[in-house]
Amino acid sequence: MNFEAGTIIKPLPTDDYILKKEKAWRVKLPYLYKEFVKKFGGGIPEKCSFTCNRHEYAIDRFLCILSEYRTHQLGDYDIGVTITQIEDRLSDNPDLLGTELVPIAVLFAGDFICLDYRNSKENPSICVWSHEESGVDEPVTYYVAPSFEAFLKMLH
Predict the structure, then answer these.
(1) How far is the C-alpha of 103 from the C-alpha of 82, rounded, in Å?
(2) Is residue 5 part of a domain?
(3) CA dihedral of residues 108, 110, 113, 114 (deg, nearest 10)
(4) Residue 58 pairs with which residues in a beta bridge?
(5) pTM beyond 0.90
(6) DSSP state, 60?
(7) SS3 for 38?
(8) Quick check: 137 and 94 in contact, CB under 8 A?
């Protein structure tokens, strides 16, 4: 996969830091996604479009996992920061500990690509989370792909 020059956000996360975030979010990130974020976190892909629900979407940028997100100039693209900003709209269960939808990419116009753990805690699918349609404890999502790997193959 190719990315626009200079768009990968550094420093890239270590395995230990990713494990720490998995514990905080109470999820197990897919192996392929962990390898991806360790190499390409925050990057803007050259092939950034995909079709879902008869609609063409475009990725603005993948999110990253930053240890120093508070002081980094691109810290707003950190997954944890994004979760904090929209967490009350990522689940329909206000008592949930952890998260069911983990945003991994920002789409044009404010939607997000998410790892969707609602049907499987082991093998999350990929969905689009709609910011305009979602409300507090009422996330609106659209299924995109059965896995992160399948999603990457859809990009054109």
Answers:
(1) 7
(2) no
(3) 170
(4) 49
(5) yes
(6) E
(7) helix
(8) yes
